[in-house]
Amino acid sequence: MKMPGRKFWIPLLLLAAYFGGRAWYFSPNVSSDEFAKDFTAIRADGKSFTLTELRGNYVLLDFWGSWCGPCRRESPGLVQLHETMGDQLIIVSVAIERDSTAWQRALIQDKKTWPYQVMDYTKSFKFLGGNIAGMYGVKQVPTNFLIDPDTGVVGVNVPLDEIPHLIGIGASGAPTSHNTDL
């Protein structure tokens, strides 16, 4: 039996290199078991805040864009998470935008009513070059970071439906009988 030749292995290696490089490039530079990087930002209501002011609470740091279809499709899940867990979880939405009008319009359309709405200005959507996105190494959206009360990152790109279980709260907002190790 004849072994596969170069015509088989070279394309296979190129595909593996492409997908491996892509996965490496798009992974954020802040991972679980690190501390969240502090930043100061101006909320949509004009008030300034720092991430460390939220210490003592679970925080979902959510990077998105009004121009991003998958981000907009995720919005109803974020709204539901805010409605069911508003007392146990603070959502900080960081919109990577070039235009504040589109961002403001998306906030209204998607019914994002929580107070921590921030616009991270970028010149290019190709590189997502905003200050906060750059600090966290965000290279694609949506991207999220689940931060514990001591500002430790306990999850990156956590599915929204898993967040209540990760922080030990059932979907109804009541504490669960078992608390998962973080």
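That was protein one. Protein two is written in the same sequence-then-structure order:
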Amino acid sequence: MNTDRHRWGIARMILAIAVSLVSACVGPAQDEAVRTAYEAHVAASALSDRTEDEATATSVPTPPLRPRPLGGQPPIPLPPPPPPDPRLEAARTLFSDAVRAFEFEDWATALDKFDEAYELSPRSAILFNIAACHERLGDAAGAIGAYLRYLAEDPDMAEELRQEVLTKIRELEEQLDVDEP
């Protein structure tokens, strides 16, 4: 019995500290909810003969803490999101169509769709895909041009990728040299 009083004394001290800390961060309604939840947790776990896992499984969860607005004023609502850019949406659709065509090895269609997507949303990664299409179509000069534009438009690319692209360009230039009489 003496152990139970000691536990309750410790639980009350912890509760008093928790309430004083929490009251600085939340409103009065949540103070009461936190206090009630904590007391239920202490009663369920500290005075029980059950194991800690059993006590934790049946204890009442503590509600999440929400900070009070400063100065008692209502919170400022977030502005509505901007409307989607129709050009960007069209570029995404064209890009998806191009990837699908590329997967089906329809290089000409993929090239056309990648070109259109790049016109609407000029992102350097699309140039890599354009170069790959030119390469698959056997157009080494077109692939080299797209790879060079890719390198120029993305100066911050990883060095490993840059070296890979430069190697690809050298291989394509060798192809051009062999193809010319």
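The radius of gyration is 33 Å. Keep this in mind for the problem set.
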